[in-house]
Amino acid sequence: MTRLQLAVILAGVFCASLAVAQAGDPRRSGYLEMGPALQKMQNDDTANPAMLFVQAGAAIWAEKAGAAGKSCADCHGDAAASMKGVAARYPAVAPALGRPVDLEGKINLCRTTHQQAPALAPESDRLLALSVLVTLQSRGLPIAPPDDSRLAALRAQGADLYKRRQGQLNLSCANCHDDNAGRKLAGATIPQAHPTGYPIYRLEWQALGSLKRRLRNCIVGMRAEPWDYDAAEYLALEAYLMDRARGMPMDAPGVRP
What we know:
Blueprint (H helix, E strand, L loop, with lengths): L2 H19 L14 H8 L6 H12 L10 H5 L2 H4 L9 E3 L4 E3 L1 H13 L9 H12 L15 H12 L9 H5 L6 E2 L2 E2 L10 E3 L4 E3 L1 H11 L10 H13 L9 E3 L1
Parallel strand pairs: 5-7
Antiparallel strand pairs: 1-2, 3-4, 5-6
Helix pairs in contact: 3-7, 6-7, 8-11
């Protein structure tokens, strides 16, 4: 059996297990709301365009960087082993900072402290590549946010933002993703806003993008002023959404319309 055949079989097994894992759970991932063609594209690692970023991430993982001359692999070894389940546990409090960070923030913290290298720019190809490499290692595992009381205030802020109306259309996230989930908007099914597949390759973008990018899209769609990429509001929303999706299997890297 070739590596290509094995990849296709494993992807198919994963997606079958995803459907079984969600049986009886009223929560639905965006994957389940897609048509067969897009599901097939996500299922097949040889057809999923996000896997090109995974390959780039693997190269960056092994690349020595910064004044320390270290690579990610020098500290963490093989990403497939050391990063298993890591992405499913973020946002989390970074001990070095004493405050919560998302996965991208943790990656940049490693760069600036251990590699002594400049932080990667938000939504840059290199940051997305490392993020999706790490996140792939949690595929099929349940989202498991930390049971950390220090995250309570952040999650509460995210819940407030999720329900808060804003913009010229006077809409909240909940108006679409709770009140109208499953209905159609411009021909696409409105998902329940569970962040199981990020980073995702969106056909609309023709590129890989983070959850922050998708949140910015929604805010612009409300005709509200989007926050800067480093704004605390995105971290709060992500903390709330990951907690809301607790126990759901991760299916990143996802493909979406």
